[in-house]
Amino acid sequence: MRPDFVLLIVVIAGLVLSGCTTMNSMESSMDAKLKAPPSEGAGFVPVQQMDRRSDLPFDKAWIKQGVDWKRYRTIYVTPVHTEYLIKANWWQQNIRADHYQQDVADMAAFMRTQFIQAFQNDARQRLRVVPAPQKDSLLLEMALTELVPSDVFLNAIKVGGPYGSGLAAAVLERGTQAQSTVAFEARVRDADHRETLAMFADREYATVRPIDLKGFTWYGNAHDIIKQWSQQCVEIANRRPGQIIKPASTFSLKPW
Q1: Closest CA to 226 of 104, 43, 124, 129
Q2: Residue with the larger pLDDT of the pair 109 and 162
Q3: What is the average per-residue pLDDT within 31-40?
Q4: Angstrom distance (rounded) from CA 182 to CA 195
Q5: Domain residue ranges of the chain, discontinuous segments joined by +
Q6: Which CATH class is domain 39-151+177-237?
Q7: Is the pLDDT reported for residue 40 higher than 60?
């Protein structure tokens, strides 16, 4: 076991059991260590040409300079690609062997619906969702590139232990094939000329919690991450010059 993970487990368990820290300070201190490593890319967008931007919430991003974004008033969200999904590892093949392909199709449909609803429910209505591309529309094209389910049986064991032990076990899962993970790549294009205007890529682990209620379902944590992505994309569409959109926390003391 890596020494830094051993130390992290000891620190987290001590903090949780002693109650000697506030929720906010604990969450902020754990975020960097618990964040999923960025994906090397599945080929939907050229991640090697993208950079980490401190003002955006994703692992990698690229936005074309000089775009007149105000001219775009509508957005069409295309069906989510699944053919770029990274080859299933041992964990995926065994934990959901008979259901994985249907899981992927269901998650892709959920992802598209979630992004459509996020733009539809935006109070500012900066971009109106349309059922087909129109003149001066933006195209949001996405690919689901990684999907690893939660282990509901392991989660039940963690929840059955002393308070705080589940948190330590969740930290141990970081970086293993058993860690619930989801990743996506996306590009925004001009519907008229098909010119790429922006690209994003992100990879996330399930949020670490002392008691993970979402871990009692195969993809409850993945659903939460996709919902976060959809809200973040709406925030980016509404972003003012200089505004910073922070990534979601990787750690929470809340069980949901």
Answers
A1: 104
A2: 109
A3: 82
A4: 27
A5: 39-151+177-237
A6: alpha beta
A7: yes
